[in-house]
Amino acid sequence: MTEVIMPKMGDGMEEGTLLEWLKKDGDAVKSGEVIGNIQTDKATLELESPATGTLTGIILEAGNAVPVGRPIALILKPGESIPAGWGSGAPGASAAPAEAAPAVAETATPVEAPAAAPAPETRIKASPLAKKVAADKGIDLSTIQGTGPGGRITEKDVLAAPSAPAAAAPVAVSAPAPIVASAEDQVIKLPRLRQITAKRTTDSKQQVPHFYVTVEVDVEAIGELRAMFEREESGKVSVNDFVIKACALALRDMPEVNAVYQGDQVTIFGGVHVGMAVAIADGLTVPVIKNADQLSLRQISARSKELAKKARENKLGLDELSGSTFSISNMGMLDVDNFLAIINQPNSAIIAIASARKKVVVNDQDEIEVRSRMNITGSFDHRALDGAVGAKFINAVKKYLENPSRLLS
Q1: Backbone dihedral region of 75: left (phi > 0), alpha (psi from -120 to 50 degrees) or beta?
Q2: What is the pLDDT of residue 44?
Q3: Is the pTM of this model over 0.70?
């Protein structure tokens, strides 16, 4: 007998959501065969069978989340059977202690208990996410009947429960007027990735003191190089590829930006791993180009195309989604003048790339020219970096972009 557990797909992963079972109870499976899909806080990943045998004893329904390491099904070999108590918290593989009835109920003799003895408190079984949602909504978990394994309360149970009535506040607090639904309204359940994106961006804006620095970059020379690449039939190189390379070299020149704030210390990373935000149907994901400072411009171009394609096909692996030390968000293709990106924690900085536009400018010789310019804005964590450092870094990136021949070596 082999337990199928919720795997730990990264250091920061605490729980996973089962999106779907690709095999049903009673199906024969082989070791390494994909039997389901799970959603982490970074992406959707495949759940592989840990053994060969028959899939059975499924105790996690699609749409529910459990902590990593928690058993969710069994793989049985011929002659084996589901153990007694499976699915009710009895199996010892559960990460939490088995929730049993109070010991006095098991061993009590038929004599009257002392009247003064308090009733033992029964521990409420609920997932960490369910507890958080209940706290946010002011719902008493003891009033909810759980539908998860062994009566465990899930996020779905909490969301379905009526909200607690508002308590009388000692001080009057103004609140927004309630939204009155109409026949034209449409309620759309957020996909799991969109929920995760919402939580992570909210956490970043609440926890990280952002400051922003914007510069205007002349990208005329980049346009000429891109045209040269196309004439040589060596493949298209995007503006984003130049930005990734420029940022990677600037990070190598200013390693203090390639860092993470950790309370009473700042860790400066030895490797330069650039995350690039990719918009997909269900939200936003950030695949990572590892050791970008050591890659040529063409290698960065090939790798970024590969990662973007895999992101849209939902085929990114865990290693391709983790380990970023800096991030880039590019909306240049969406006709925007400027925007401010939210830092992708635990990074200390992210750069936002706007659209390139033809502008009338005055050059160094006081002559009027029409040049291609674009705004880039750095968002920085003020706990790790001071304003002067952010300004120097964004100008270092600008210098590389305005002299792109330095990016070809």
Answers
A1: beta
A2: 74
A3: no
What class has domain 193-407?
alpha beta
144's CB contacts (< 8 A; 6+ apart) are 134, 153, 157, 158, 161
The CATH number of the domain covering residues in 128-160? 4.10.320
Q: Which pLDDT value is given to residue 238?
A: 93
Instruction: Say which of 131, 194, 371, 382 is annotated catalytic.
Output: 382
CATH number of the domain at 2-76, please?
2.40.50.100
Residues β-bridged to residue 322: none
CA distances, 167 to each of 138, 163, 164, 170, 404 (Å)? 10, 12, 9, 9, 62
Q: What is the reported pLDDT for 316?
A: 86
Q: Is 279 helix (H, G, I), strand (E, B) or coil?
A: strand
**Among this protein's residues, is 273 annotated catalytic?**
no
Domain range annotation of the chain? 2-76, 128-160, 193-407
Cα–Cα dist 6/4, whole Å? 7
Structure tokens at 273: 């791993």
Give dist(CA 380, CA 341) in Å, integer: 10
The phi-psi region of residue 355 (left if phi > 0; otherwise alpha if psi is between -120 and 50; otherwise beta) is: beta
The Cα–Cα gap between 271 and 265 comes to: 18
Q: Do domains 128-160 and 193-407 have the same CATH topology?
A: no
CA 24 to each of CA 28, 36, 51, 52: distance values in angstroms, whole numbers, following the listed order: 9, 10, 16, 15
Q: Is the dihedral of CA 20, 11, 68, 153 positive or negative?
A: negative
Q: Is 86 within 8 Å of 75 (Cβ atoms)?
A: no
Distances (CA, A) of 3 to 33, 75, 315: 15, 6, 25
Q: Which helix (H) or strand (E) holds 240?
A: helix 239-253
Pairing of strands 357-362, 368-381: antiparallel
Q: Strands 278-280 and 259-262, how do they pair?
A: unpaired
Strands 274-276 and 326-330: parallel
* pLDDT higher than threshold 70 for residue 115: no
112 pLDDT exceeds 70?
no
- 372 bridge partner residues: 358
